[in-house]
Amino acid sequence: MSACPRVAYFCMEYGLDPAFPIYAGGLGILAGDHMKSVGDLRVPLTGIGLLWDEGYTRQVLGKGGALEDQYPKTARDAVRRVDARVEVTIKGKKVPLRAWKVERYVTSDLYLLEPEREGDRWITQRLYGGGTEDRLAQEIVLGVGGVRLIDELGIDADVYHFNEGHAVFAGLELLRSGKFGGTSLAQKVAKLKKHIVFTTHTPVPAGNEVHGLDIMRTMDADCGFSDKDLATIGGDPFSMTVAGLRLARIANGVAELHGETARAMWKDVKGAAPILSITNGVHVPTWQDARIRAALVPDKKRVVQDAQLWEAHQTMKQELIAEIEKRNKVKLSLDKLLIGFARRAATYKRADLIISDDKALKKLLDQGVQIVYSGKAHPKDTGGKALIGKIVEATKKYKKHVVFLENYDMTLGALLTRGTDIWLNNPRRPLEASGTSGMKAAMNGVPNLSILDGWWPEGCQHGVTGWKIGDPDPKDDALHEKDTARIDTRDRTLLFKALDKDVLPAFGNRAKWVNIMRASIEMSEWQFSSDRMIEDYVAKIYRPSSGR
Fold first, then answer.
1. Under a CB-based contact definition with an 8 Å cutoff, are residues 171 and 191 in contact?
2. Which end of the chain is less packed: N or C, by CB atoms within 10 Å?
3. Which element (helix H / strand E) includes 375?
4. How far apart, in whole angstroms, are the C-alpha atoms of residue 387 and residue 351?
5. What is the CATH number of the domain that holds 307?
């Protein structure tokens, strides 16, 4: 790989291993895979994050089926303390920070910050917990503390990568310190822009954080800037996404379609960086089962490869079935189609789409089709929890066909993306920025059945690598369409049609199905790998010539 400048990478969460739960979902898993690949490829990138005392929720079904959130302490055996001390100011108080270096799971340099004093540990008590003040305090530690830690460690970073708006206060700290020169705010921003790159991840409005200038000043998140200057950078109220776009020389969405959506969303932001597309990828050694790689060794005859690929898949499916029986006391069939649906329980992802038409669902289940769900809702997301509630009710109604596995995490993610027969994804387009779980499934020979959203328009060859659920209709753009019920009815009909006309007939033909499995693997294992993603970041984002 061509030379890359030294990069400082900021992210609120990192999904590295199930035993180290300092991640909530897709953003964290992506950041973890990012750090694994930069280590594998020896890219000079240093990661900065927070050491969460309780991590994210362990979400289980309590009595009566209600979701309960539990918060076990984060084990410290994967990190070691480093001799670096910095401090930040929060609510007028000096808060000393200590740093830890991650010693397992990655070969790259990843440092995590937390307050030194027990009395300040409320800041990093819980990932995405608390209210606005907690969030601002966390983002001060990540951004301001992260920049100061980079300097304290003597790392001469030339590029600062803000992975989502959480890190934007790093930009304010760099401006405040005058690190790259300039006297007026405009001059400082112009000089700083050469060194900032920004990734936006969500087209969902609620995912783009906004803060009032008054609360920013109360929390010392203003970094000493006037209201006028803050408004110039991020607007009034202060949008973390707008600030990231204005401070960066170049920005990116996380799939080709998401790049288009982001450019449309933010087209009126004056001074915004151009927004490219760098499609996400996943870390192949982490997510692709070794048995899949072993089956497809090139020096074997095609017929041997096919036989071993099917055998490997059936073994992994049996492992999943055994885990389901162990957890839920439900015995699924090895020979019947097993649909997998597992992701963050956000309402726009429509986990309940397939179970919302009893007549069509019963016809499907009468043919032996099985569905396994998993998902986790944000502790405060009542809509997401209600969605899981609907799935739990369906498991009671269709006990031998529909199951829900509680506490979705990396362990379950791996089991499901290897052991199901087909991976279902049906968000309201274009609200799925990327959707990396489908990539993991694809590279394990589990074809996708998906709305043409996120990464799937780039990977779908209908009937070859998997299947699409209908074609996009401009009238059904969920960013602007208020009548979501109409969109849901249309897509539900298309989903059942695809299952009936395309998926089930193909599943009944072993040779055809194995060909689709092979094509799915061949399509995904480089194009949607995090190694390819990192090469794109180096070539299109990190190098000084990119974005100019």
1. no
2. C
3. strand 370-376
4. 7
5. 3.40.50.2000
Q: Residue 341 — φ and ψ, nearest 5°?
A: -140, 110
Q: Count structural domains, the chain.
A: 2
In 78-119, which ranges are E strands? 79-90, 93-102, 109-115
Q: Are residues 269 and 296 in the same domain?
A: no
Q: At what angle do helices 484-498 and 358-366 cross, to 10 degrees?
A: 20
pLDDT grade for 471, boundaries at 50, 70 and 90: very high
One domain for residues 475 and 491: yes
2 lies in some domain: no
pLDDT score, position 455? 98
Q: Look up residue 175 and give its two tokens.
A: 């401006």
Assess whether 249 and 370 both reside in one domain: no
- Please, how many CA atoms are within 13 Å of residue 354, restricted to the half-sphere of its CB? 34
CA dist., res. 139 & res. 158, Å (int): 21
pLDDT of 479 over the 80 cut: no
- pLDDT at position 207, please? 76
Q: Calculate the dihedral angle through the C-alpha atoms of 234, 238, 239, 243, rounding to the nearest 10 degrees.
A: 20
Q: Give residue-wise pLDDT tens across range 490-502.
A: 999 999 999 999 9
String of b and e for 413-449 (b: at least 16 CB within 10 Å)?
bbbbbbbbbbbbbbbbbbbbbbbbbbbbbbbbbbbbb
CB atoms within 10 A of CB 230: 22
305 and 233 within one domain? no
36-82 pLDDT per residue, tens: 999 999 999 999 999 999 989 999 998 878 899 999 999 999 999 99
Whether the pTM exceeds 0.70: the reply is yes
Q: By C-alpha distance, which of 55, 294, 275, 88 is closest to 172?
A: 88
Is the residue at 347 inside a domain?
Answer: yes
Domain hosting residue 308, numbered range:
284-527
* 121 in the same domain as 156: yes
Confidence of residue 548 (pLDDT cuts 50, 70, 90): very low
Pick the closest to residue 12 from 151, 157, 143, 182 (CA basis): 143
Whether residues 303 and 276 share a domain: the answer is: no
